[in-house]
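To make this tangible, this section ends with a sequence with its structure tokens:
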Amino acid sequence: MSDPKEWMADIASQHEGSYVELYEKVYAAVARGEGEVPWAEVAERHEWLREWAAEQQLDGTGKKAVVVGCGYGADAEFVASLGYETTAFDISPTAIELAKRQHPDSPVHYTVANVLEPPAEWSQAFDLVVEIVTVQALPRSLRRQVIDAIGGFVAPDGRLLVINNKQEEPFTDGDFGPWPLTRAELDSFTTSGLTEVRVQDRPSEEAPPTRRWQAEFRR
């Protein structure tokens, strides 16, 4: 099997149409055994979520959480283990089917949804919102809308955890993502009524070396 990043780039280079169709095409190919998505199981990002949850002593009893762009559901399963009534969504129907297949007895509510067209009842409905690398996976032309939509999920007194790649200089964009976040873009989560609690600029141990934002916001 080729390198997952190269495999993904090859599919993207041949794709015509929306990003919605692209991500479904990728997960459908995975389901056929043709490859693996490069972002599926990045242990570092999952570990950062777990470290943060332990630091915050999160107890989800009687609370609701949502995991954005859940993929195979690793983060959603962890959040549910903290006691949260957890919703996890992805734009790809095949991704959701794969998540359900991997976690057949899960309490997580896995559902297909577009972050730009979420159900109305999700507005300020979640005590915890987990966003890990979904924003950077979508074109910069959609960034303002995506950030506003995700921030809009946070309930009064709720919190949002964001983990995304940091945009380094020189600022360049390729034909296909990821499109890392600038500090100004990260700060723009506050325009949806959230307050920035802490922002960390953390080094990644992945190759090639990069840096990631880990940020917490509250309403």
